[in-house]
Amino acid sequence: MEDEFFCESILLPTSDATGDHLWLQHNPPLSQVKKNSIPWNGIYILLIHGMEGSSESHYMVSVGKEALLRGYGVVRMNLRNCGKGFGLAGKPYNAGQSEDLDDVLNFIRTKFSSKVFVSGFSLSANMVLKFFGERRPQKVAAFSATSPPLDLKRSCDFIDSKAGAFYKHHFLSTMKEKVASGVYAIDEKTTQRVLKSKSFFDFDDFFTAPLAGYQNVLEYYHTCSSIRYLSGIKIPGLVVHADDDPVVPSHVWREVNWSAFPNIETVLTSKGGHVGFISDPSPDFPEGRWLPKILMDFFDRKRKSLSL
């Protein structure tokens, strides 16, 4: 994306006194860097990737491009120790890290615009739903959440099952590589215990939960599962999920009475996988990716209905 659009790297210190930093990729509105471009509409969109992703994940890039071409400014956030931010944090990211999201939103509102939309994917989609259900001071006009693991314990059970074996091995291997690198502020005994984890549950129990300040993994899953916060969401939001998602179990989605949450629109597709949503290329979708259109059409509607 940096090859096509001007990009500025920003190092943002977290507010938790750890000394950790977040690496942000800032793509300013096209009209600010190129003549005869579509005028800026005054709004910034914050994009946040999923587990072991980065600001360069395909969905971050494709949605970011679509947003820029529609007149928005874009900030692509790397979670702690992800992407170009690897080595800048002693603590790992987690599914309920509201403070980091708050830090980035405060930065965007101070530096770029008070009008902000947020779009989270996968693990960060859970974080976004939790964040806006916590009844925090209003700082965002609308949001989207794509492929959210609504119930972290049941999503963990699914990945740890035979059906999720491929993704379990993939994610565990990359997360263990980071632990083995020594980037985290943990002792050797803890490191070795974490590296011997055979399941997602054990990894989160030995590593993610205690470093996030929870007594155990079950407290972490219970506290951070976004399904508990849906009723508190007071701003417009779009939640997108695919019925064939191989990471997040669809039966959890179907158990939710979405009609009870009037501020949330939902899109459930039969195909799309996990933050994939790819079809054969067509004139409307040259790259075959149709998620950017779904999300940006929603944000455009909210921009107009909210008179932003």
Automatic annotation (TrEMBL):
Xref: Pfam families: Abhydrolase_1
InterPro entries: AB_hydrolase_1 (IPR000073), AB_hydrolase_4_CS (IPR000952), AB_hydrolase_4_sf (IPR050960), AB_hydrolase_fold (IPR029058), ABHD4 (IPR012020)
The organism's place on the tree of life at top rank: Bacteria
Gene Ontology MF annotations: monoacylglycerol lipase activity; short-chain carboxylesterase activity
Alphabetical UniProt keywords: Hydrolase, Serine esterase
Active site residues per record: 122 (charge relay system), 245 (charge relay system), 274 (charge relay system)
AB hydrolase-1 domain segment(s): 45-281
Similarity comment text for this entry: Belongs to the AB hydrolase superfamily. AB hydrolase 4 family.
Protein name in UniProt: Alpha/beta fold hydrolase
